[in-house]
Design a protein that fits this description.
Length: 518
């Protein structure tokens, strides 16, 4: 119950199966008193009220499986819960002891002891930037290689299109010009005939304009006798002026007609070139050819700009690599310096947990580069005092539990974590060892809040407060509950752990003795 509820408050994935049949939702709420400035910064960045470090975290899971999260009644994203949960609670569940044989976990524990938090943050930031820059650089190099492979072809195509000196609208203009040049002789003949219609010819024939002038003269004569004819005279005059203008335009047009075969040949050659280019580049207009020319030009210019970008990125990568090497060197020095002290502290705690002959060694060696530097850490152990070997090759389940408790105890000294939860960290031990583990857990409670879930009476008796988880059936439903026990109930629960279902007088007496000895 406790671990499931706290997991939800830590941002774990919600599941509708958590909700009993017929219920609308599941609500989990917890109160925390926090002084960690990092938690405060995260909350203030999300515009959540700090309230002096008193936090009420609530999560509501609906029957559909969707959930809503709140901190001090302000709606928040799950990412914020995940971000602050590591600063509020450390849950050590049963399977977490297996992490002890994980090299990454071993490295993180040593870093915790060496107080490398700031250096690790800087290292992670540099590593992330370095990976991004290298990926960007690799992509640009590949792009440039592809462009280089096509550069000769692109340059030839660009030069061919650039040499054509393309102009928008040129094709339509040339087609019209070709049409005019092809029929120039017929056009000129027709225009000449039109000109002759307007003006007198060599044979004495009168043109249209001269005939109209004659009509005007005759109407002027008639006007002396019939005044209304003046209107007709003015209309004839207007028509004559318009026709004179048309005649002049036809004359100019006729003079501009080019009958040069050479010019026609030039136009047809230019058209032929344009048609060839249109077909070659699968274009339908000169404008599309211009776009193709610009594309080839851009690809040629891209190589130069890409090289500049590559050079800039190479400098950035080089700078980041120097910073990364510097931070890795600092981390390595701190880890090597801290390793012997850390091993001594672990051995001292192991001696208290009845592993006095054991040997615990921390090796720091070269590892694969990563966000935590370039070191690899290995915990080596021997319970008999002989040559220590890798922890995963020699330690039993009980020894793993004791070593893990020692690590947690050391980490708790440096942690601002308000709450630590052990879920049967005492698995695999019993008797006096269990009693000593209980004492160690109890001493950790002097520095922070500790919950220990256990089935060992020696461990349970050490606690300042006891809570019992029970199940009962009511109305066909199984109900789980948690209740605090004290006084005689507390004695009975310890006795039940000692003797089972039937609690004997000897078990009760032993329970009282354990509670007095804590």
């Amino acid at each position: 119950i406790l671990l499931g509820a706290l997991s939800l408050l830590s941002g774990a994935r919600a599941d509708a199966s958590l909700i009993s049949e017929g219920a609308e939702n599941c609500v989990v709420e917890a109160e925390f008193d926090v002084s960690d400035p990092e938690v405060r910064s995260l909350l203030e960045a999300s515009e959540v009220e700090w309230d002096g470090g008193h936090l009420i975290i609530r999560r509501v899971v609906s029957s559909s499986g969707r959930s809503r999260s709140f901190i001090n009644d302000s709606p928040v994203q799950l990412s914020l819960l995940s971000g602050i949960s590591s600063r509020l609670i450390d849950i050590h569940s049963q399977h977490r002891s297996l992490l002890l044989t994980d090299r990454r976990f071993q490295l993180s524990v040593l870093d915790f002891f060496a107080e490398n938090r700031e250096l690790l943050g800087e290292c992670g930031e540099i590593w992330s930037g370095l990976k991004d820059r290298k990926a960007e650089l690799e992509a640009l190099v590949k792009k440039k290689e592809a462009l280089d492979a096509e550069s000769d072809y692109n340059r030839v195509q660009y030069e061919k299109l650039a040499g054509a000196k393309l102009r928008a609208g040129e094709l339509e203009s040339l087609e019209q010009e070709q049409k005019s040049l092809s029929g120039a002789e017929q056009i000129k003949e027709a225009l000449g005939k039109i000109e002759r219609c307007f003006s007198p010819d060599s044979e004495g024939g009168d043109g249209v304009v001269h005939l109209l002038m004659e009509i005007e003269r005759q109407l002027s004569y008639v006007d002396r006798f019939i005044p209304s004819v003046r209107t007709l005279s003015e209309r004839i005059k207007s028509a004559r002026i318009e026709l004179e203008d048309i005649s002049a335009e036809v004359e100019r047009m006729n003079s501009r007609i080019d009958m040069s075969p050479e010019h026609l040949q030039q136009v047809e050659e230019r058209l032929s070139l344009l048609y060839t280019l249109l077909k070659k580049y699968s274009c339908s207009t000169v404008e599309e050819l211009v776009a193709e020319r610009e594309r080839y030009s851009s690809s040629i210019n891209d190589i130069s700009s890409l090289q500049e970008s590559i050079s800039r990125l190479e400098e950035e990568v080089s700078g980041l690599e120097r910073r990364y090497e510097s931070v890795c060197g600092a981390l390595h020095e701190r880890r090597v310096k801290a390793a012997s002290g850390f091993a001594k502290d672990v051995m001292k705690s192991l001696e208290f947990l009845e592993l006095g002959n054991s040997v615990f060694v921390v090796d720091v060696s070269a590892g694969n580069p990563g966000s935590a530097g370039k070191d690899a850490v290995s915990f080596r152990f021997s319970s008999s005092g002989k040559t220590p070997v890798e922890l995963e090759k020699c330690a039993s389940g009980g020894e793993i539990s004791r070593i893990m408790l020692c690590l947690k105890e050391i980490m708790a000294r440096f942690s601002s974590m308000p709450t630590l939860i052990f879920d049967e960290i005492d698995t695999g031990v019993s008797g006096s060892v269990a009693d000593r583990m209980g004492s160690m857990i109890c001493s950790m409670g002097g520095r922070l809040q500790v919950f220990s879930i256990t089935h060992l009476p020696q461990v349970a008796a050490k606690g300042d407060a006891h809570y019992v988880v029970e199940k009962s059936v009511a109305g066909g439903r199984t109900v789980s509950s948690v209740r605090k026990v004290s006084g005689d109930d507390r004695v009975k629960e310890i006795a039940r752990l000692l003797s089972g279902t039937v609690i004997s007088d000897a078990a009760l007496a032993n329970a009282r003795e354990l509670l007095q000895l804590r």
